[in-house]
Amino acid sequence: MSDRGNLRDDQGVTSILRPIRARSEPLTAFVLSGGANQGIGQVGMLRALLERGIVPDVLIGTSAGALNAAAIATSPTMEKVDHLEKTWVSLTGEDVFPGGTLRRAWNILRRDDHLIPNRGLAHVIERAEVAPTFNDLQLPLRVITTDLMTGDEIVIVSGALPPALLASAALPGIFPPVPLNGHILVDGAVVNLVPISHAISGPIDRIFVLDVSDPINDRQIRSPLDVLIRAFGISRDLRLELELQWVPKDIELVVLPPPDDNRDVFDFSGGQRIVDEAYERASAALDDLEQRPGLQRLRRWWKRRAS
């Protein structure tokens, strides 16, 4: 599907979203947060949505959420959800963070700009079997990244897809920044972990938010990476409250409940349980939405717990 209706420069970046699709159903956006290994919970949410015939007109994703969004934009089918689930459940910490402790220590000593190479991330993207370019996608996709030099939020909408996904997931200091289209890009979570604002820049009727990034949980701080993820979460809370206030009153906003996931960032075990729990919680929330339509504009089925 082409990207007509979007304002973008010749480098393939944009901050304005105008999905154009002629259809009688509500125009729907899926917003997928970052969340590192917690991104697996979005697979269960996506299954619950697609089972009910809720297919997005546009997807917006940050970091791990960008990978999941890209998979669905490639093929919005249950078969693709099945493949995405198998990909996530089979992952190990070594798959994503290869090299071991000695390699990370050596990178510090030689003053490199990262601790871990991104070849593991690149392999995960290959295993997810996403489209090679944005033009090959079946649905419009917006990938959120951050310009490391200017601090600008950069939204990629065209060109090769794998480099955009690598950039969106490039945790600063952990993975190498990605040079792309004249920018030096790192993780989109630095500026916008739950990018709702990009779903309201066009004629959207409803937004489903698949947010698995809530940092107010029982996850222990065991590593520098846990500190980084928690820091992202703090900035996320401040930005998210602002973004919720910007949503027009005539747009229905549904924030799906996340599963309990208190694993440390390097731990990819127990993925199937998290997918199943996310699916059950999202299904219950969507059933409630169908039984009581229009009850309230903003639906949240969860509350943040005190840390």
How would you describe this protein?
- The chain is of the alpha/beta class and 307 residues long.
- It has helices at 41-51, 64-74, 78-89, 93-96, 100-109, 119-128, 161-168, 224-246, 271-291; strands at residues 28-32, 58-62, 141-147, 153-156, 178-180, 183-187, 206-210, 252-255, 298-300.
- Strands 1, 2, 3, 4, 5, 6, 7, 8 and 9 form a nine-stranded mixed sheet that branches.
- The longest helix has 23 residues, at 224-246.
- The protein is globular.
Features:
9 strands, disordered N terminus, nine-stranded mixed sheet, globular, single chain, alpha/beta, 307 residues, 9 helices
In a few lines, what is going on in this structure?
This protein has 307 residues and is an alpha/beta fold. The chain is built from nine helices and nine strands. Helix 1 runs antiparallel to helix 3 and helix 1 runs parallel beside helix 9.
